[in-house]
TrEMBL record:
Family matches, as NCBIfam families: thylakoid_BtpA
InterPro entries per the UniProt record, alphabetical: BtpA (IPR005137), RibuloseP-bd_barrel (IPR011060)
Pfam families according to UniProt: BtpA
Similarity comment: Belongs to the BtpA family.
Protein name: Putative sgc region protein SgcQ
Taxonomic source organism: Pullulanibacillus camelliae
Length: 268
């Protein structure tokens, strides 16, 4: 039994993304509608996901485009306000992801009681956002410093819109990441949000670290969920739950219900 069963309540877990609208400081933030609008849109998506039957939810500033690799304090402050206002309505385990800042993701988790965080904790990359460096030792020490040692760390080892500066094989990356850092899970992604996770890469990662939780991180749909979950221990799902399967849209409860019906049938 993995920690997914203990913390979230199921194996072959489906973690749904609740994408926040642009926040104060983001180029696309709607100053006229303000934070009340952002909170209400998050509430709408949260309820559609919960009523649709997902196992857990992860709150993320997905529309803070273009992303920063060192996030400004107003972003995490806004995210804390949203989660705080929704706290009494959250009925399932939740995690957080402050794109792309591991320390602030942990700060937000500590402040809100999130059970897990997903982030780029290791590696150095050439990305759409410039040279992207990390310091996992510093980040994990920060985790313990703020009392967040029980928060599960989901390591995204194939970051979207980025490539390792060193030419490293994915099996080598997975094995050394697990050996050096003891992640709670490895997340395997496609090129962008909504892009299908490569089955062969997913299989290589799971085979090389069979005792570690491996999640399909992007592009899992109702049509491919069985083949993805036949390898992965679970999936992080965002775009597939939205109206017309489009990244920029809100969550469609009927799509969530249909997806979860198939997922639950598969794991039973």
């Amino acid at each position: 039994m993995t920690w997914l069963k203990e913390i979230i309540g199921s194996e072959k877990t489906i973690i749904a993304m609740c994408h926040f609208q642009p926040l104060p400081g983001d180029p696309s933030y709607n100053k006229d509608k303000g934070m009340e609008y952002v909170v209400e849109m998050a509430r709408k998506d949260l309820w559609a996901l919960q009523r649709g039957g997902v196992d857990a939810v992860m709150f993320s500033n997905e529309f803070s485009l273009p992303y920063l690799t060192k996030v400004e304090p107003e972003t995490v402050a806004a995210m804390a306000r949203i989660i705080g206002e929704l706290m009494s309505e959250i009925e399932i385990p939740f995690g957080v992801n402050v794109l792309w800042d591991g320390k602030l993701s942990l700060d937000l988790a500590a402040a809100t009681g999130a059970k897990f965080v997903r982030e780029i904790f290791t590696g150095t990359y050439a990305s759409d956002f410039g040279i992207w460096d990390t310091n996992v030792g510093e980040t994990v020490r920060h985790q313990h410093h703020i009392g967040a040692e029980k928060v599960k760390l989901l390591f995204n080892i194939l970051p979207e819109a980025a490539k390792y500066i060193a030419d490293r094989d994915i099996e080598e990356i997975a094995k050394s990441t697990v050996f050096n850092n003891r992640p709670d899970a490895l997340c395997v992604s496609g090129l962008t949000a909504g892009a299908k996770t490569d089955l062969q890469i997913l299989k290589k990662v799971k085979n090389i670290v069979p005792e570690t939780v491996v999640l399909a991180n992007t592009g899992v749909t109702i049509d491919n969920l069985e083949e993805q979950l036949s390898i992965a221990d679970g999936a992080v799902v965002g775009t597939a739950f939205k109206y017309e399967g489009k990244f920029e849209n809100h969550v469609d409860q009927k799509r969530v219900e249909a997806f979860m019906k198939k997922a639950k049938a598969f794991r039973s």
